Automatic annotation (TrEMBL):
Organism: Bombardia bombarda
Ranges: Solcar repeats: 23-111, 121-216, 225-314
Domain of life: Eukaryota
Protein's recorded name: Mitochondrial thiamine pyrophosphate carrier 1
Keyword Transmembrane attributed: yes
Amino acid sequence: MPIPPPPAEQLRSMEKFRSVISQPVVAAFCAGGVAGAVSRTVVSPLERLKILFQVQSVGRDAYKLSVGKALGKMWREEGWRGFMRGNGTNCIRIVPYSAVQFGSYNFYKRNFFERFSGDSLTPLARLTCGGMAGITSVTLTYPLDIVRTRLSIQSASFAELGAKPTRLPGMWETMKVMWKTEGGIVALYRGIVPTVAGVAPYVGLNFMTYEYVRQYLTLEGEENPSAVRKLAAGAISGAVAQTCTYPFDVLRRRFQINTMSGMGYQYKNLRDAVRVIIQQEGIKGMYKGIVPNLLKVAPSMASSWLSFEMCRDFFVSLKPVEEPLLR
């Protein structure tokens, strides 16, 4: 029997959905969420290792190892789950974070800059839009980031933390404990000042560099570069942005666990943290964990930008074709 066509009401709903999701800002928002989940899962072991390096203060050497040996230690002690520890929370955080970041960047570009300057944006305008998008996304999703940090380190073999708990708390349980015992909403936004200070220039540099390199890698006569060249542009933009803003990331991690007993530091404020770290650990202390971070940047940002562009183009292509008016 032939399959009956869908009813007219269902067709109208589908057309309405396609019309909404194909809008540039909405398409960027949805594609950004997909891109965030893909990129974070690809580099989850290096992401967790970076955090373990970052939070290890002077005199602590549980993870004072090369990247390869540290990954081996993580595998021996915790197995595959150790590589993925905190990734579920990270994806729950990164999907809305990345969606808001890409969506708001597109929104700011279209409504605050392109409206006045035409289609061609200056590097400064792209930097500004990216910075605004970074602030918007991190403010809305920061509690999930601080919980992810706690989940990443609670099963690691830091002697200062004592014996590993037999049952590790999950995301919502950790968030609830922090809320009850560490000061409510203040606990869930601890470290947001260095985070915003680092995220705004990082996201701005990332967007600005990617769009510049992407344009440079687009050959004459092409509308878009190939997938390989998009991957290269994403890797370059991520490396540039991460290297320039990495000390802020270290400060963010330190403040996120500043109230955890046994980690060896209780910073009073941002200035005190910078002073103590440089005094005790030298300038290298501000760049702890940068090696695994740079190793993850290339595949992370490359996969993020490529999956974003592919998904965005797909959503935009869903725009219904308007039927010509009959005269």
